[in-house]
Structures are given as C-alpha cells and as structure tokens.
Amino acid sequence: MKLSITRSILVLGMLFSLAACKLVITVPPGGVVKSASGNHDCGAGRTCEIDVVDVFFDESFSARSHEDYVFKGWRKKDRYFCGNSTENCVLSTTWMGDYPKIMAILASEQRFFLEPVFEVVPRITRDQIAVRGQVDETSDGFELRGRLTIDTGAQASLEFTDARLSLGFNAEGDLLVMNGVTNLPSPLAGFVTAEQDVRAEVGLYRGSEINADPAFEITLKDERQYLVFLVSQDFDINVYNPVDSSRSEKFTIGTPASGKIILIVDPADQMVYRYGETPLLGAFGEAESQQRLLPYKPWITHTRFPSFDGNRYETISIGVGVKAVDLLNLSGAQVIYEPGFSDINWKDPLNSPVAYKAGFNGAVDFAFSVVGFELFSFDIGRASALFNVNPRRGVMKLAGYLEPDVSWQPDWFTIIPQSRLSMDLTADSDGTLVSNIAGQYESVIPPADLEGSMRLDPRSVTYSGRIRGQSLDLPVSIRFADRTTTATVGVTADFSRAVTEGIDSGFASARDLVEDATAQLEDALRDYEFEVSLRGVRDLIPGAVDTAKTYLARLPDQVYSAVRAEVIKQINANRVCILTVCTPSDSSRNSIATRAASEARSKASSEIARYIPLLDNLKSRANDAGDEALRAGLEAALREIYKNRVFSKRISVTVSFAGISKTVSRTITQEVLSPDLAAKILAAADNMKYLPAASDRVVRGEQLVAGLPDAGIVDDIRDKVKAGNILPPTLTGVTYTVTSGDRYSAGIKFSDGSRYTVDFNVLDVRESIAGITELLANHVISAY
Fold first, then answer.
1. 50 and 41 Cβ atoms separated by less than 8 Å
2. 81-90, 320-329, 522-531, 540-549: least confidently modelled range
3. C-alpha angle 216-190-280 in degrees, rounded to nearest 5
C-alpha cells in the first residue's frame, strides 16, 4: 500500500511498511475511526482487521473523538501508519503493480497497524472541591456564601474567598456550571499572583464558548474548561519566572478601554491569560501554558501554514528586524512554541540563539527593495506569519491578501491587478527573500488578461502565468527592470502548429496585398491623390494633427465626469444613512467626488501631454524646407503618429470615506486618428521613398508595382508548400518589449534563424496567429 498524508511525504522505508496483507485498526475508548467509503469503519473499543490482497485498495481514514475526548494524533510505533499526524490517514495500493518486490510483501502474512490516540478532556469534579460557609443545596449542585477551594492537582489549588457562587454538576460529578463573585484567587497559578485583594466576577466556560465571543481576543482549546475572571479595578500582579527569578516581573495591570480586566485560568494546565493595560504597553494580552496548550490557527490559509500548540501567547505591536526586509511591523497576536522560558530577540528574530516556532495573526506593514526599483511597500490589514528558528537557520513566512490597487507597483508597470491577489513572502536568516503575488492581472501594453504569479526578490521582478480567455492556453513570462518590460510568450506545440497550418491564409493576404497595392497606385496615378506626391503628404499633415489634438483635448473632462459619477456611486453604495442623515453627507460626498475627479482629470492631462510633442513634431516636419532631407524624418514621424493612432491609458484614484478606502479606475480609450486618415498616413510612410518631391513629378505605377512580388509567383509558391515541395520554417520564439512606459515592439523568430520585429499584439492569440502566418508567408515568398 502507498501511504500519503495531507501535506506530507513519508520516507521510503515507510512505503515498504505499507505493503501488508492485513491492516489492523485498534480503536481505544473515546472515539471511532471512519473510512471515506464507509466500508471500513471501526468503533470505540474494537479491533478491526482488513485483508489487503490486491492493487485496488484506496482508502482515507479519519479519527473522530467522542464528547469529553480529544484526538491527539495517530500512534507512532514500528509498523504503525501515520504516526504523530493529526491529519486523515490515506492508504493506497494502486501504485504497486510495477514493483514485484512490494507485491510479494502484499501477498505475505504480515500485519500492520493504525491506531488513534484519544485523550480525556480534564474536568473539575465534585471530589476536587472543598467548601466552607453557608451552603444551600440545589437540584444539580449548590449555592455558596463563604470559601471554596479547587484542588487542581500537583499540590496546587485555587482559593475563592468571600465568595458568592452557584455551582452545577452532571450525574458523574463533573462541574458544568460555576458563576458568581469572589475575591480573585492568588495565586492564579504557580507563577502568577495578585498582590491585593480584588473582587472579580467569575464564570466557567468551554473554550468553544470563549472562541465564539469577540470580546475575548485569545483563541483557546474548544474542548477544555476555563475559569474566566472579570475585574473592574486596577491591581498589582507578579509573574514569576521559574528558570530565572531575576526576570520575574511585577507590574500594575489597569482597566482597558473595553471596560474590564480579563483573566482566564485553565486549572488543569496552570495556564493564566491576562488582558489589561499598562503604562508601558497600553492594552495587551499574554498567557503561558505549562502543557503547551495555546493553539495557533493561521488566518490566511492559501500557503498552508500549519496549526500548532504553543506555550506562550501575547499581543504585540513591534518592529521586527529581518535581513532583506527594509521595514517589518507586526500588530496583532502571536503564539510561541519554545523549549524554555526564554525571550526572543525581535530585533533579529531569525538569528535568535534559541529554537522556537511562532505563529502570528494581525496587521502587517513591510517594505523591501529590489535592485533598480524604489521600495515595494505593503500595508496588509489581515495577515498571518510563521517563524521557524533553530540555532542553525531561521525562516519567516508571511501571507495575506492585496486589494486590487496599484499602490505597491511602480507607475510604469505594464500589468495591473484585476482582483484581490494572494501574496506570500519567505525570508531566510541568510538574507534570502522571495515574495509571490498571485492572481488575475490586466496587461495594459499590449492588452490582455493574465493569470499567474509575480515573483519579487532583491535582484529582480518577474511574472509567470498564462493568457486568459484565449483560444489556446499560452504561458507568459515577463521581466521588469529599469522601466523596461521584457516578455516571452511560450511557443506551445498547438500554437506553432496553428501558425504552420494557417500559412495558406498568409499567402492569400500576400496576394491580396499585391492586388490592393496595384489598384491603389493606379488610382493615385489617375487622380493625383496625395499618395504620389511629397507635397500632397505635407499638405495633409497639419489638418490631421489639429484634428488629433482636438480629440485629445476632450479627454480630461470626459475622465472627470466619469470618475466623479463612479465615486458618488461607490459612496452611495457604502455610506450609512439613519432616517435622513447620511455619513458622509451629500455635500461631503460631492466634495470627495469632485476632488477625486479633479485628480483623475489632472492625471489624464499629464498622460495626454506626452502625446502633444509627437503631433507637433510631425506638423513641424511637414513645414520644413528641403524635400530630400525631409524624407527620413518625416517617415519616422508618420510611423510614430500611426503607432499612437489610438490613445489608451488606465487612470486610477483612491478615495477614503467613513473608514473605507476604494480605488476607482477609468480606462481612457480615444481614437485619435480616424481609420481612413490613419490608413493614409501609413500608406504615405510605406511609400515615402517612392514619392516624388512635387505633384508635377509623377511616378509611373509600373515602377512602384515592380517592387512587389508577382501574384502568379505567390500562387506558385503556395501550391508548392501545399504539395510538400517547400517546407516552411517553424515558429520558435515570440517575445515583446515595452520601453519608456509605452513603446511596444514584438519579436518573431523562425527555425531557420530568421528574426522579425512586428507591432501586432502577441498576447492576443488570434491576432498573433494571423500576423505570424502572414509574416511566414512573406518570408517564404522572399526566400524563393
């Protein structure tokens, strides 16, 4: 049988142990063993044998405790499965068919075992209680005015003096109810004493009741009983250190803003939790457990942080020193498992001299630097962290969620979050740091929806994922550095095959190009349109530029209106109204919306301002003297303005109201040049080298068409490719870069070593296949 435990892999020797002809399940009193199929359940006090003789056995076993018992884990002994694990025990023989030696063990008479360990949850019994004073019997217990003593074992006891208490028991004599008022017992445990007589309300609660009440910040064991004391006056308390008496602490614990000091005692563990206030720490909570019964359960579970039981609990708000992390502040609660009563050096916790494990839940602020970037800063309101340290190595793991804003990203990043992201970070005591931020992203340049993970370490920022919502599942890897985006699109077998099989459409496009170019040039020669005259091109430009600038000038006000309306909508959806009074008020709401809209308009104006010099440069070129010297610069300006024929930019602003922070985004998309005008500008750029300087110098159509392949040649090459007489090269590489924030170009590579630079969107699978097939067809035509 193959053994797998959730989140664990057993050693090879254990795998051989699994090959057994009988599985013996022994269940002690206190619970049962359930099988996922229901075919192999085993009750309390029973021993169940299962014959395992073939490769079809595949079962998951779970241990379920009865009331007043707790499952401590599977027993660890020789030939016992899943030892010490508290997870379901999964056993399978389905993999063994290829291993004759293991199959021989399966056919033997060997016996192997599975046994849960159940432990009785300690209860206070009537035999542990002594009373003195006025006692009035009730139907299930008694009421007391006087003194009550609870023997907690190990020569320890809790003394309740001047007590007015009600107690109730079950038929077995277990204490189920205790409430009333009393002087606070001292000592509360062997190491915690109150220095004055203090009145307290007292009640007996199960851990599950405490965990369900938000007034108690600490998490305790669901099944255990605890005495909860509420004190409404300040008093002195002494916490004794049994290892080093010089480190014992005496301080005054005061009433916090929540109203009452809270003390919780586990009589069977000598655990004392105290929540109050001190001048030095402010409101705080802390506890020690001799039996290490303080549970840690991480809030954030996507990294599968383990739960564990520790011996110390404390609320903290501290700066933590970890190499490679420039800033790390923790504010919340942590549970620590350490071998002794030792303090951890939180200025450098991963290099502490003691072995320990600490789990944290709360808010985290942290920042770290990456070469070539400013600090990456994160403010996470709900996070979990795990510290694992021994004298040789220390590791911190941090996990949380990031809302879909871009506050932690440089402004030139070409991908932005689309939804809440899960993030995790691992820092090592040697300074190694890696953070992953996973989820759904939007690629702005070129446009696409992505899903994957951004990896940050001190040397680089890289993204690995896939393109979402496309006809083919293509992987994408993107590297960000020095305001430059460099990306590789994975050339899968399906993608390469689609390009090769689509080459026929590329030949058709090439033939259409020949026919269209011939027809256009003949029309130009007949009509003396601007395409055949450099002067005509120059006459076209000023009007085109003025039209484009007019379109751009309208955008900031459009953004202002759209953002203002969206902010008002967001506030209306989230504000609180009682009768006719709303928070925030209408005037405050309108003011917030106006400020946010003005900020968005300013950002839009700033983005548009970068485009104006491009347009002005083109207009200036058109007015330059010297026709021959003008050609190269004018062609470059025409191509630049054509590339920016559509203005697209995402504008985001963050607004805060009534304790809520919202990010409102608006994507500006404006067609700066009409399709007809854009086509003329591209045609002018493509034919610049052929154009005569003035309209009275006409270039004959035959001379221009001579530079294009003959339509008959295109058809002939296409037929040879179909017949297999010509084998086109295969697609081997697709890359793209974005520089200076918005300058996009893509690279295509074929198996014969040829490379091309293109400007179509390689993250749009359909557009990419169409562009590459046309490119491949032209490549084959030029080669033959």
1. no
2. 522-531
3. 55
The SS3 of residue 640 is helix
Q: Exposed, middle or buried, 319 (CB in 10 Å: 0-12/13-18/19+)?
A: exposed
Token reading at 76: 């660890």
Joined together, the tokens standing for residue 325 give 């992390």
Cβ contacts of 655 within 8 Å, gap of 6 or more: 567, 570, 571, 592, 593, 595, 596, 661, 662, 664
Neighbour count for residue 522 (Cβ, 10 Å): 14
* Phi, psi values for residue 283, rounded to 5°: -70, 135
pLDDT of residue 689: 65
Residue type, 473: D
Write out the two tokens for 749: 């590579």
More confident call, 406 vs 621: 406
Higher-scoring residue by pLDDT: 7, 276: 276
What's 469-528 look like in SS3? CCCCCCEEEEEEECCEEEEEECCCHHHHHHHHHCHHHHHHHHHHHHHHHHHHHHHHHHHC
How many of the other CB atoms lie within 10 Å of CB of 548?
A: 26
The predicted structure's pLDDT at residue 247: 63
pLDDT confidence tier of residue 18, bands split at 50, 70 and 90:
very low
| Six-digit token string for 598 | 């003005």
Above 50 in pLDDT, residue 189?
yes
Hey, what are 265's tokens? 């005692």
714-to-456, 498, 703 alpha-carbon distances in Å: 49, 21, 19
Question: How many of the other CB atoms lie within 10 Å of CB of 636?
Answer: 15
Owner of token pair 């320990």? 356
Structure confidence by residue, pLDDT tens digits, 717-759: 788 878 888 888 999 999 999 998 789 999 999 999 999 999 9
pTM metric for this prediction: 0.66
CB-based burial of residue 314 (10 Å sphere; 0-12 exposed, 13-18 middle, 19+ buried)? Answer: middle
Spatial distance between the Cα atoms of 284 and 258, rounded to a whole number of angstroms: 12
What is residue 534's three-state secondary structure? helix
Number of C-alpha atoms within 13 angstroms, CB side, residue 210?
25
In the numeric block, which tokens belong to residue 465?
């994922």
Q: Which of 694, 717, 696, 700 is nearest to 784 (CA)?
A: 717
**Cis preceding-peptide flag for 187 (omega within 30 of 0):** yes
Mean pLDDT (the chain, rounded):
83
Task: Tell me the two tokens of residue 295.
Answer: 């549970």
CA distance 25 to 469: 50
Q: How confident is the model over 562-581, as pLDDT tens digits?
A: 888 888 888 887 777 765 66
Pair of tokens at residue 619:
């207009």
pLDDT band at 160 (very low <50, low <70, confident <90, very high): very high
- Residues near 58 by beta carbon (within 8 Å), at least 6 away in sequence: 91, 92, 93, 94
Element (H, E) at 199: strand 199-206
- Please provide residue 725's backbone torsions phi and psi, each rounded to the nearest 5 degrees: -80, -20
Instruction: Write the CB contacts of 372 (distance below 8 Å, at least 6 apart in sequence).
Output: 481, 482
